[in-house]
Design goal:
Blueprint lengths: L2 H24 L86 H22 L5 H4 L5 H17 L1 E4 L5 E10 L5 E10 L2 E4 L2 E2 L2 H4 L2 E12 L2 E14 L8
Antiparallel strand pairs: 1-4, 2-3, 3-6, 4-5, 6-7
Length: about 250
Amino acid sequence: MSADRRGLVRVASLVLAGAFAVAACSGSESSLDTEPVTATEPVEAPPSDASSTTTSTSTTTTEPEVTTVPATVRLDEPEPTDAPVPTNAPDTSTTEAPRITTPVNTVFAPDTVEGAIEFSILNDNEAIKRCFAALPNCDPDDLTLFAVLDYEEGQREFADAMNTDGWTAARVDTLRVTMERIVEFSDDGTEAIVEVCADFGVQFFLDGALASEDTGGAFSARRRMGLIRVGELWTIFARETIERVDGEDTGLCN
């Protein structure tokens, strides 16, 4: 065999050996389940010196790069969801989610636009009742779950003032609201004015004394409310009283 041919055969053998090595590495799934291995280049031993009587040995340790895949993570599997919680993490097991209820005995069908607006108005009324019941610790964030713009600002100011002064409330369940009709929609369908009727028999107390009729007497009121759609949720931005009758069982909202 000629020298050129022997050289070609040797090159082909090296290429095939390298291909088999690559195939063996890529075909093994278990390589991700082992600790990262740092490859080091072979170091040729220095020529021996018969006249030297001292041998020096040097060991080099290479730290794994931060991009190395951890031994317990497989690229073809989802990340574990039961990772341990750090000991200094806040305890969220008792954190209460915002309380949004599904109204019952509604006037409008829930799957209509009117029903979606009624859903927000009734939930806003429930938030007001929770605020009254919690006084003098009304949560402004809970009170304004369905409030935006001027209406939200007014509700927050109300909660802060009642909390600061130390008011409490009774007969909270007498606060009822009924959506009566849609007055109008905006041209693009994202704003609406609706008419509601509310019965109010809540009693307020300051330092244990019942508030005067001017502050907390029973009444019924017909109101108009402005709502704007934010995503899929209708929120209240304005409220105006257009008729009021003082006293209980006025019949205005019947």
